[in-house]
Structures are given as C-alpha cells and as structure tokens.
Amino acid sequence: xxxxxxxxxxxxxxxxxxxxxxxxxxxxxxxxxxxxxxxxxxxxxxxxxxxxxxxxxxxxxxxxxxxxxxxxxxxxxxxxxxxxxxxxxxxxxxxxxxxxxxxxxxxxxxxxxxxxxxxxxxxxxxxxxxxxxxxxxxxxxxxxxxxxxxxxxxxxxxxxxxxxxxxxxxxxxxxxxxxxxxxxxxxxxxxxxxxxxxxxxxxxxxxxxxxxxxxxxxxxxxxxxxxxxxxxxxxxxx
Amino acid sequence: xxxxxxxxxxxxxxxxxxxxxxxxxxxxxxxxxxxxxxxxxxxxxxxxxxxxxxxxxxxxxxxxxxxxxxxxxxxxxxxxxxxxxxxxxxxxxxxxxxxxxxxxxxxxxxxxxxxxxxxxxxxxxxxxxxxxxxxxxxxxxxxxxxxxxxxxxxxxxxxxxxxxxxxxxxxxxxxxxxxxxxxxxxx
Lengths: 238, 187
Hints:
The complex is a heterodimer. Chain A is α+β, with helices and mostly antiparallel strands. Helices cover 44% and strands 20% of the residues of chain A. Chain A has seven helices and five strands. In chain A, a hairpin with an 8-residue loop joins β4 (208-217) and β5. The relative contact order of chain A is 0.08. By secondary structure, chain B is mainly alpha-helical. Chain B has helices spanning 2-13, 17-34, 42-57, 69-93, 97-108, 121-133, 137-147, 152-159, 163-184. Classes of the chains: A alpha+beta, B mainly alpha. Chains A and B meet through α1, α2, α4, α5 and α6 of A and α2, α3, α4, α6 and α7 of B.
C-alpha cells in the first residue's frame, strides 16, 4: 500500500463520515437510490446530476448506493455457512452456538473485553486460593485424646469441648467439591447439637458418639437448648 | 425486487422464516460489498456476516425506520460495517506488538520513506481531494469506485464500459494522480 492508497483510504473515510451527517444542500439517500435505479423524472435527474458534479461526498454516496442496489438486483446464492447460521436461528433457538452468537451480539457493546490470558490467570489464581484455604482449614484428627465428657458451660464457649450423645441425623453438606456433612446429636439432657463436619460421615443415626468441637448456642424460641458448631473430631463410643 | 425487498423485510420483522431465507442472499451481497475495503478473508467475512445476521435476527432489523430500498441497503451496510469494525479492532487489539510497531513505522514513513520531501498527511489529503474534484465526472466515478474496492469487472458492469478499457483508464488515472502528488512533494 503506497501513500496514494493511504491518502485515498482517508479520503473515502472522510467522505463516508460526511454521508452520515450530510449538508443541507446534499441529496437525500432515497433520491440517490431513485437516481441509481433510473426512477427520477428528467428534470429531477438533471438537478441531482448537477449536484453530483459539484459534490464529491454525494457522488461517493451515490456510487456506494448504486453498487449496493446492484447487489440487491442480482445477489449471489447465500453461502452454506450463512444458511446454516440462519437455520440455527430459525429452527434451533436453543442451539448453544446460536445462543453464543446472540449473547455475543448483545454483550459486545456492553461489556469490557478481557484478554484470554487475563481470564486464564484469574482462573489459576482462584484455584490456588481455594487450595490454600483448604490446606489452612485442615481436617479432623483420627482420635480424641481426652474422653472427659462435659456439658457445655457456658454454652457459647468458643474453645474446644467434648460432648456425648446419640446421633439423630446425618446430612450431606458437600459444597463446591468439598466433602462435608452436618450431624445432629442429642445428649442425655435433651440438648441438641447441630454440627458441621468436614469429610464423609463416619457415624450414623442412632449411634452413640463423642464429639470434639467448637460450639455456640443457637437462638431457639421454644423446646430444649440447641447448640451449633463445628466438629473437629467424631467417634463412636460403642 | 426493490418494493419486494421492503415487503420481505416487513415479513422478517413479523418473524416469518421464509422471509428471512428470502432476505439472506441480498443481505449477503450487500454485506460483502459493504466491507470490500476491509480486505477480510472469506472465513472472516463469513464470521462478520453471521454476527451481523444474528444481530438483525435478535431484533436489530426492527431498528430500520426508512421507507425506501436505498435506505434499507444503507441500514444493512451500516450494521455489517459496524460488525466488521468491531472485528478488525478486536483482531488488531491482540496483534503481536512487533506487527503493530511495523504498522506504525510504515504509517510514519510516507511513500515507504522514499519521498524526497515529506509533506504532512493532512495537507496531502487536502491536495488529493482538490485534485479529485478537478477530474472529469467519469474519472471521479472511476477513482471512487476503485477506491471503494470494486473490481474492474464490477466497475465495467456498472458503467457499461469494457473491462479492458476500465483497467487502462484506471491505471492512467492513478498514474496522473501520483504524478501530481509527487510534484507536490507528497510521494
């Protein structure tokens, strides 16, 4: 591309921009279309031609409209790819490819584009953060050192305590790929403990257990006392 | 076709699949002609047209307010060109920096750096516009058609002149403009 080509490109760009906001003396697009199609009276055509002789922007617009109308008059058959796109739009609105195009078309003017490497880096950072968090949280140990059983006093103590009771239910609480469960235990006094525990359940409903954990009292308007907490160790007592 | 095309568009807006199928070849032809100057590959052109079609199908066609075929083709042209501009911007955004540097250098070197006198682009552009304005109407048309990326065969079809004549006329015309720009110090 030499300098004449580059200057020409700029000139055409300037003329196109002019066509988007034409001067009041300029010929309307519809009239240019009529002129290209030969649909004007001879007087109107002479008037339009006189303007086209003087106005490079209008001549440029006229040439483009004439070219496009020529395409309308004798279009080539649509390509297979374009026909497929239309078929998907018409017949398979649920097609993922079509929806991706529709979503892209809608989001393009709305969202900030993020380079692929930035997205990849963010994904890796997220994975590392999740891994580090899991390592920090840790898992319950295998055995409970002290079987000394006591009731919670006070109930909202945040240090580790051991309680004993019967498992009333075990529910899966796996989240985001992290295995966990919730155990409900009722002790001899009728107090209920709802405990979150990591990993797969090792106890079942009806079993007597000792639980080492951190507890706090849950608000409960009626019934026996209820405590909630995190179990750090669970073991069957018989 | 012209009144028929507006009717097809009206039916498309009503959601008639057959109308969309009837519009497709015309849309493709208008789209192809609208982005000639972008010099897209066939695959890229297909992508641009598919995106533009999806946008029209998703409601974009209802934005058309005109009442003539010329206004309709101008509307479709704008939709496709906007898609093509997005596409080119996106492609350039991730172009290797070396390539961009080379493009910058090329743009900064008028005439590939061989011009004996370097005149600012704006002044040369104004001079070129003035030179084009002084051409005869038929030469002005030839220049603009060539500048818009029309092939000589297409120019011949639209002007009714033999393709060989068109080719030689364009070659002479461009050489004349180059001489004028060279004399001005723009080349």
